[in-house]
Amino acid sequence: MTRIEQLIRPELRRLKPYSSARDEFSGKAEVYLDANENPNGNYNRYPDPFQNELKKELSLYNGVPTENMFIGNGSDEIIDLLIRTFCQPGHDKIVTFVPTYGMYKVSAEINAVDAIELNLDKSFQPILPQDACFWENPTNKLLFLCSPNNPTGNSIEEGIILECLNRFKGLVVLDEAYVQFALSESWSKRLVDFPNLVVLQTMSKAFGLAGARVGLAFANVEVVSWLNKLKPPYNVSELNQKAALEKLKNKDQVIDEIAQILEQRAILFDELETLEITQKLYPSDANFILGIFEDATELYAYLLERGIVVRRRKDVGENALRVSIGTEVENKKLIQTIKTFIREKSTVY
User: Fold this and answer.
1) How many whole angstroms separate alpha carbon 12 and alpha carbon 17?
2) Are residues 16 and 111 in the same domain?
3) Does position 186 have pLDDT exceeding 70, yes or no?
4) Per-residue pLDDT tens over the stretch 307-342
5) Which one of 13, 240, 246, 344 is most buried, counting C-beta atoms within 10 A?
């Protein structure tokens, strides 16, 4: 039994996955009479269950072989699938470092899996346990690292990621949802070195496809095989696959949009830093900025009343707000509205 097989839930090792006729056929048929579809219409056929065309285009884009790819209905589906595949309900655990993306814990709780929440230090780097029992515990199945981290915006240090990969007996899931906005290279290029590494990415952020729900996992072929066994038969729609393909075939537009966001991030950071109610801004490798602001509760409500939605992050601090990078016009409106808020408060006092 391989290392990955040992991590799989015992009851799933005997699973005979659902198989459609499309699973057993590759290429394009002249007549489809296998799936009880309506023979009329533009989207009357079920989509490719393994998204082969999209995987080929992704491979050209990022250099990862197609056999090392899994595509999900957003990264959230992949997070849920990983937990369902590797964690036995009521027995196994996942590990996170808080504050971080909340769906790791939510998905674990939905699947009756405990979440061990460890802390980040003052620089928002994971504080790794010194206890050898933690690293050797066979019930600790998945360790989630978000880099750049949400909501803090910082990248996790390479040495910390390496220590987790070398010491943790389960799978290390590195969530790179925001990696295109950072200077660091994706760990998807290092799958050969670390068979226990799973890299998550998404087309929701840098590719601007949040509405299409296309999540990506890069892992060794064994992990990918197990995810394919447990996923719903047609988990990514034809419409979503086409939207992703269109973006990948217009790479220059994606590159330009990322450059614009990075430029606006720098401008917005400088503008926020000059505001008298700004107590602290944290450097960001993502498409958002985390800050601590005086009267954050009032400011949040004030912005909301004027049609500007930012995010409260009380898990960081009572006065923490996370601000996504918008267009130049949106960012200017945000700053102008905050300045108006400051003026109105000073007038009252």
Assistant:
1) 10
2) yes
3) yes
4) 999 999 999 999 999 999 999 999 999 999 999 999
5) 240
Q: Per-residue pLDDT tens for 123-164?
A: 999 999 999 999 999 999 999 999 999 999 999 999 999 999
Look up the CATH number of the domain holding residue 267: 3.90.1150.10
State how far the Cα of 71 lies from the Cα of 235, in Å rounded to an integer. 9
Cα–Cα nearest to 136, from 165, 103, 169: 169
C-beta neighbour count of 318 within 10 angstroms: 10
How far apart, in whole angstroms, are the C-alpha atoms of residue 4 and residue 162?
Answer: 19
Domain that holds residue 289: 252-348
182 in Cβ contact with 285 (< 8 Å): yes
Overall pTM surpassing 0.90 (yes/no):
yes
* pLDDT for the residue numbered 20: 77
CA distance linking residue 199 with residue 218, whole number of Å? 5
Annotate 159-199 with DSSP letters as a single string. HHHHHHHHH-SSEEEEE-TTGGGSSSPPGGGGTTT-TTEEE
pLDDT, tens digit (0-9, with 9 covering 90-100), for 208-259: 999 999 999 999 999 999 999 999 999 999 999 999 999 999 999 999 999 9
Among residues 249, 282, 311, which one ends one of the domains? 249
Residues 285 and 181 in one domain: no
Distance in angstroms (rounded) separating the CA atoms of residues 108 and 84: 9
Name the packing angle between helices 75-86 and 221-230 (round to 10°).
100
Q: What is the pLDDT of residue 19?
A: 82
Strands 140-146 and 93-98, by their bridges, are parallel
DSSP letter for 150, please.
Answer: T
The residue whose two tokens read 């981290």 is: 149
d(CA 280, CA 54): 42
